[in-house]
Design brief:
CATH architecture of the largest domain: Alpha-Beta Complex
Distance between the termini: 43 Å
Order of helices and strands: EHEHEHEHEHEHEEEEEHHHHEEEH
Number of strands: 14
CATH topology of the largest domain: L-2-Hydroxyisocaproate Dehydrogenase, Chain A, domain 2
Bound molecules: ligand NAX
Shape: globular
Number of domains: 2
Length: 329
């Protein structure tokens, strides 16, 4: 039997985590022969709910689930973890902009970055889901710098999947026909879902969907506002689709991305595509299945794309400036 993988999940009693935890426990992510130890963190007020989740996990009798730790102490939750999925944060409510959350949620990630650096396993990978996820990731990384920068990721995979679905639906093809999608920049309504480099059945998406006006004025805003659309429809933010994005993100890292394709993740920039170093920016990425991302370099953006790229970049620079006091040098 392989060595157990320790997976810490914060916000474990919340809606996103609810869908996430079961899929990790089931063996779907790390495989049927890899035992999983879940280390679940919540606020004291939610511990009773988390206790209920523990009982339900026990009642699933998953052969892969070796142990479950529930705690309100980040030191315990992050002890020896190989993966940390940081979901815990206040979600965006009706009428609330993502930017409203920056100051509210930032301090959580100061503390969690510090504790991760002290407690996590030496091979830890961190995925930040809690919003605003790019800037929360920046805060956590800067406070946990003993962990190499390339191990800190923020989630743009839900946006990626949304964009893939939207193009597939328009072209009337299965989602598997859409490849080489990129979500550039921020997980917010400035993100740029890049239809110009995307492909449908191996052909440039713009040759299959020739209505450029639709791509620019329907597809792009629809992807950018999809989160708000879900909230307006259901009165709560996305839950199982977000959990699915996190699962897909980790699966791509563990199993690799298909040859000739890439996916999307936000990473600490080392200056790629002219993004200032240290900004957590959404890029096209590949993985060989070794837990590491490589940024796909050399993609070209047309004038429309460059404009969108700059807008999302400027937003992330502004977000960084707003939390400057939470970023130790
Ligand atoms: P819920 O309110 O259902 O759950 C959040 C949980 O986090 C709560 O149980 C709360 O007690 C816990 N929590 C808060 N502060 C904590 C802390 N310091 N330590 C541990 N736990 C803490 O929200 P949910 O719908 O699950 O959303 C969770 C986060 O995901 C939100 O920030 C939300 O905005 C974000 N999302 C991010 C997405 C993405 O694509 N990156 C999409 C979906 C989702 O909106």
């Amino acid at each position: 039997m392989a060595q157990a993988v320790r997976v810490a999940v914060t916000g474990a009693a919340g809606r996103v985590a609810n869908s996430l935890i079961v899929r990790i426990a089931s063996g779907e992510v790390f495989g049927p022969d890899v035992p999983v130890i879940l280390q679940l963190l919540e606020l004291p007020v939610a511990m009773k709910t988390l206790e209920g989740i523990l009982y339900e996990l026990q009642d699933c009798a998953f052969p892969t689930l070796q142990d479950v730790i529930i705690t309100d102490d980040a030191n315990r939750a992050f002890e020896g973890c190989n993966w940390a999925i940081l979901v815990g944060a206040a979600p965006r409510g009706p009428g609330e902009q993502r930017s409203d959350l920056i100051r509210k949620n930032g301090p959580i990630f100061v503390e969690q970055g510090r504790v991760l650096a002290r407690r996590a396993a030496s091979d830890v990978r961190i995925l930040v889901v809690g919003n605003p996820c790019n800037t929360n990731c920046l805060i956590a990384w800067r406070n946990g710098r003993d962990i190499p920068a390339e191990r800190w990721h923020a989630m743009t995979r839900l946006d990626h999947n949304r964009a893939v679905y939207a193009l597939a639906a328009k072209a009337n093809v299965p989602v598997t026909a859409v490849t080489c999608m990129t979500i550039w920049g921020n997980h917010s309504n400035t993100q740029y879902p890049d239809f110009t480099n995307a492909r449908i059945n191996g052909r440039p998406a713009t040759e299959v969907i020739t209505d450029r006006q639709w791509l620019e004025t329907v597809f792009v805003p629809q992807c950018q506002e999809r989160g708000k659309f879900i909230i307006d429809t259901t009165k709560v933010s996305s839950s199982f689709s977000a959990a699915n994005g996190a699962i897909d993100h980790i699966k791509s890292l563990v199993r690799g991305t298909p040859s000739g394709d890439w996916t999307s993740a936000a990473l600490v920039s080392r200056g790629e595509y002219g993004v200032p170093e240290g900004i957590v920016f959404g890029y096209p990425v590949t993985s060989r299945g070794d837990g590491c991302w490589q940024i796909v370099e050399g993609l070209k953006l047309d004038e429309f794309g460059q404009q969108k790229f700059q807008i999302t970049l400027q937003e992330l620079i502004k977000e960084r400036d707003v939390v400057q006091d939470l970023l130790p040098s």
